[in-house]
Amino acid sequence: MAATTSFWVMQPSAADHLASFKATNAMSEQAHLHSNEFCKKGLPRIVGDSDALRRVLALAQVVAPTDATVLINGETGTGKELIAEVIHKCSDRSGGPFVKVNCAAIPAGLLESELFGHERGAFTGAIARNIGRFERANGGTLFLDEIGDLPLELQPKLLRVLQERQFERVGGSATIRADVRVICATHRNLIEMVNERQFRADLFYRLSVFPIKLPPLRERPEDIPSLVHHFVMECAARMGRKITTIAEEFMEVLAQHSWPGNVRELQNFIERSVILSSGGVLTGSSPNPARIAHERSKEPAPTTLEQVERSHILKVLEETEGVVGGRNGAAARLGMRRTTLIYRLRRMGINLGQSSTSRMNAAESSLSTSKELGPDTSSLSETSGETASAKFAESRCRTGRVCTLAEAEREHISEVVEMKNGLIAGKGGAAEVLGVPPSTLRNRMKKLGIEFAGPA
User: Fold this and answer.
1) Are 145 and 73 in contact (CB under 8 A)?
2) CATH number for the domain that contains residue 137
3) What is the pLDDT, as a whole number, of residue 324?
4) Which residue of 105, 127, 132, 184 could cross-link 116, Cys pair, CB 3.0 to 4.6 Å?
5) Most distant CA atoms of the chain, gap in Å
6) Which residues, including other chains, have CB under 8 Å from residue 109's CB and lie 6 or more apart?
7) How many domains does the chain have?
């Protein structure tokens, strides 16, 4: 390779296995958070020295000695399980078990048995007694990952365990005491879920005794070089590769990327780069393969999700002449309950006493801009506000039947997510375009059955 400034990777010594790497040459020595900085040895490695990360670790250190329930919130790939393990190992329960449960990975019908256990014969296939995760975690910590996916019917039972520290196995009558500290994590916005009645308010307040918010990687870019060195060294050692330097140009590309998948995405990309490496100098292509900035700047600017919803509701109300209920009313056409639609109308400030035509005209006049439309107005970029979203709703419903609100949302969200190549969070992501938080968009996509093979 041509003579360029490179980052040198030091191999770890046996005496200090936790010192993950050292960078020199065009990079000041990075400070690393070793376990002995804030707790006993044996902690998982924490790589980075940003203020944001230090604040998280300071909170973990403060809450660890207590038995308080901790709620860790952060985007996928930010290391929520790692922080939960740090809290456990810094606590007085560090000698006890650390039991993990992913609430999203276990079918709802089996989750109760998985958490609380079951007696023999409790249900078909229960041929023997099963000890649940709460019993296994006795004297230690139970980590409930993706707590936002806990079914509503199980939430009162979890609340009872947290408050009374006791439960019964499925099919059993004996009360079992639970000496367990609970740590939960989620990437979803539980407050919004509470408002939408998808999560119990009393359980939320019980879980969020001590909330910790993990920052996404884009909010701590100064940690990227340290993480890159750590993952390069780790992958090279595992694969038997001799990588001694990282090209400066490659490091700059990695440092400038937004990493919507956070640390997990960075780790996977570094592993791929190490696999493809053919010499001692690690280099590679951009993690965001070139769908070129000038093309992206020419993309049409789609309207927000709220504008699309409002426009579609107004359009259907106009078609039904303001009739909300009944077989041919707006609620039936939109695929929702009459009371739900009335609540939505009140929230949007739509007065049912007005005529449907005046509602549509008022909405269009209040949300449109002074921009004059040219002779060809076929794209969303040439319209704005309610006019654009009304145009969208009309174009999407030219099938032989009425388009429900969910279908209109599904098509618009899918279009925006595809346009953004699957990027949900971050600047320029689908959530920003649609005017909703990333957690709300992910939740909506899950409800609508929208899947996209791309960064989240």
Assistant:
1) no
2) 3.40.50.300
3) 84
4) 132
5) 79
6) none
7) 3
